[in-house]
Amino acid sequence: MKITFTYASQKDFKWLSDAEKGHEITSTMLKRKIQDKEVLLVKADNKLIGWLRFGFFWDEVPFMNMLGLDKEHRGKGIGKKLVRFWEAEMKKKKYKMVMTSSQSNEDAQHFYRKIGYADVGSLTLPKEPLEVIFIKKI
Fold first, then answer.
1. Do 98 and 64 contact (CB within 8 A), yes or no?
2. Using one digit for the tens of pLDDT, what is the confidence trace for 67-99?
3. Is the whole model's pTM more than 0.85, yes or no?
4. Domain ranges within the chain, ordered by starting residue
5. Paired residues of 119 in beta bridges
């Protein structure tokens, strides 16, 4: 299986819209993020299987907002490779640190720790589980 990474383009909007359902991003915001090169895609043998969407914390620290991978491709190291690709892209742009978060009841928190992210704090939003904040120096 050949794995490739690329930035999303507007032609990927429909696929991303379907993949992002339930992740609380508006169509307008998704279009803007694609235009601003803040969405990465992963393909297996030229078939879209996942995405990574990011923004900037305090407008200056790259912050991974969403990492999504088709269920049948999870647990194979592809998500880790996608995150590493994003980290390398951010390093090329001279950033020294990246951030992400995960709710305390999600398995994603263990994934982030396993690939080198460190807990640095948390926040509590009304009627939501604790949100754990992670950083990683790159």
1. yes
2. 999 999 999 999 999 999 999 999 999 999 999
3. yes
4. 3-137
5. 134
